[in-house]
Specification:
- It contains 9 helices and 4 strands, in the order H-H-E-E-E-E-H-H-H-H-H-H-H.
- The protein is mostly helical and 279 residues long.
- The chain has helices at residues 5-22, 26-31, 116-123, 125-136, 147-150, 153-179, 189-223, 235-242, 244-254, and strands at residues 37-41, 51-56, 59-64, 75-79.
- It has a two-stranded antiparallel sheet.
- 46% of the residues lie in helices and 8% in strands.
- Helix 7 (189-223) runs parallel beside helix 9.
- A hairpin with a 2-residue loop joins strand 2 and strand 3.
- The radius of gyration is 31 Å and the shape is elongated.
Amino acid sequence: MSFNPRSDESEKGAYAHLEQSLVAPDEELQATTAIPMIEVVAPATLSEGYKFEAQLGDKTYQVIVPPGGIEAGQKFMVPMPSETLTESMMIPKIKVPVGQWKDGIFGCCAYGPFHNHCLMAAFCPMIAVGQVIHRLKLNIWGKPSSVAESTGVFQRIVAATLAYTAFIIMINVVCMPFDSAEGYVEPPSFIISLWVIRSMCHYIYLGFLIYITWNVRHHIRKTYAIPEGVKSGLEDLCCAVFCNHCTAAQMLRHTTDYDTYNATCCTEKGVPDDVPDIA
């Protein structure tokens, strides 16, 4: 029987190739490692892609709603957060309720009638809404925007409010003799012009306040999946028109934690600067 060394070597090469095909490289073995999952209970009915905060032990992590959305109370599985989270992901955040308002629209005195948030909403509703806009990083119209558009919005709202107030005071001083005159007094033409200008400024200011309050409240409801109390599509507008001061106070309470942090009046966030942002 003849021995062919070349045939033997070719068989060994074939077996070596088979061995390599059966044993996966280390990279492939690592890629098939099972990812640990955790069970999350949906806080509200949320649409696909919505992000909310979930508690795991003593830490809070961001959860993304899976395709198809979820319903309130539904349990679903998500990958367990990696322990190698960056510091920016671990910055403490104030939790904002999802699925419902923190309290009712008439809870203005929840912390007392002389609480700073209540006073701001009662006497400076424009600035109060401006504080909510700053917390949510919205533009001057109360709508989502880029960082550039949302920067300095609170300062512009305060400046516009002060300018409006000063202008109205000046007009009132000039028109006072005719506003308080007993009986009919024929006013000069420039006084009539000032009355018209005063009325126009008042309605423009009021219209702008209603518009941004409407937008901000709608944004809060959409962001935190809060359903309308009455499914009319007009709840936010009605609150902005008929209960503007109470609506501003409700949004202030919903977007921070007054149980833990003190309220401040004329600051950007309405709370001390070292208070964490909202989640």
